[in-house]
Amino acid sequence: MADIVESREVSALIAELSTVVGREEPYGHYARLREIGAVVRADDGTLIVTRWTECAAVARDHRLGKMPVELLAHAGLADWAEHPALYGYFTSLLGINPPDHTRLRRLVSSSFTARRVQALRPATERMIDDLIDVMAGRSSSDFVEAFAFPLPCNVISELLGIPAADRAQFQHLVSDWSAVLDDITPEVLSKANPAAKAVREYLAALATERRRQPREDLMSALVGHEEAGDRLTEDELLTMAGLLFAAGFETTTNLLSNGLVALLEHPEQRPALFADPAAAVQELLRYDSPVQNIDRTALEATTIAGVTFQPGDRIVAYTGSANRDPRRFSEPDRLDLKRADNASLAFGGGMHYCLGAPMARLEAEIAFPRLFERLPGLRLAPGAARRDSLTIRGYDALPVQN
Ligand code: HEM
Fold this sequence. Notes:
Layout: H1 8-17, H2 20-24, H3 27-36, E1 40-41, E2 47-49, H4 52-60, E3 64-65, H5 69-72, H6 84-90, H7 100-109, H8 114-118, H9 121-136, E4 140-142, H10 143-148, H11 150-160, H12 170-178, H13 186-212, H14 218-224, H15 234-250, H16 252-265, H17 270-275, H18 277-287, E5 294-298, E6 302-304, E7 307-309, E8 314-317, H19 319-322, H20 357-374, E9 379-380, E10 385-386, E11 395-397, E12 399-401
Parallel strand pairs: 2-8
Antiparallel strand pairs: 1-2, 3-5, 4-12, 5-8, 6-7, 9-12, 10-11
The structure holds protoporphyrin IX containing FE.
């Protein structure tokens, strides 16, 4: 049996990852944690894996699931269902286990199809050009505000059927809501709850409208969809739409920002981006992943890397570290858009594998070549503000000049 490593160094490394400096540059800390051991224990008892093999196993092993709601009370969250921000998360696909997960994922997958995403290509191209037109008319912009937020927000809104005039309000709402992914404190909840409630109320009104008058959008498909006599209840529908909506731009915004920074810091890679945008985006996702970790709870005793997780153990897989593990990738800290074997854990793995991966890829594959084609002088300007989160890696502001 292998040991779970607990030490002062482990505690210090994990604590530093939550500081401004650690969030700016977590990769050195990850490297040290990977060396220290396959499984380490944080001061709060969480078990952390940072190497590729163990992170992939944690993501894929069905004996490790999402924290069953009965255990939330032990985690100090007995009143979770009364907090809209937690209710919308813990009852969504991201928070549940089979058989509920299997049923809900089947119901949404048959409406949110690859064909539906591909059908968005022309609209996505138009939206990208419109946003670049605005950037081209100014000498400097905040890339997050001008491009990285509105693009995915517009694309997921287009898919769901949210009218253009209503979209801008959602950036702060979803950002406040998703803060619960990092830390559930009374202060975080005081902003997250009203935000989650506002998003849900908006989607409820949209669902009512589409029930009355269906259109071609995903909301109409979700309200009308029935499979083998089964359909989403109103509560499930609103939770699902809320998850798709929030997940639809919260993460993709950061793929666009992190990817832009990586591409601007490596101008020699520009030809490879134009030659194969799909491979380039795959490498950008590996190199600086927008989602840096995923969490699981042991549902039964499970042995990984010679360590047995006991039922109820909370496990966090640092996928952002796994994607830089030299055991899996040669020269992992080097951005190489032509890397042959670059499939990463950026979208997770197993039954919770990201449902929106084709959509995020579509946006980034069109966006990056188009940005550099139309704004060849694009460069970073001072004043970048990193997002205050270890789970979601990205920027709140990213000033650029043309
Ligand atoms: C670059 C962009 C994105 C990244 C890096 C990303 C990452 C992830 C990751 C790591 C997971 C797995 C979480 C876990 O295992 O606990 C996940 C799940 C999910 N993602 Fe994404 N995502 C992205 C974009 C999107 C988009 C555009 C959508 C929706 C339109 C979306 C919808 C979802 C949903 C619904 C799940 C839950 C699936 C389930 O639990 O069965 N994501 N995503």
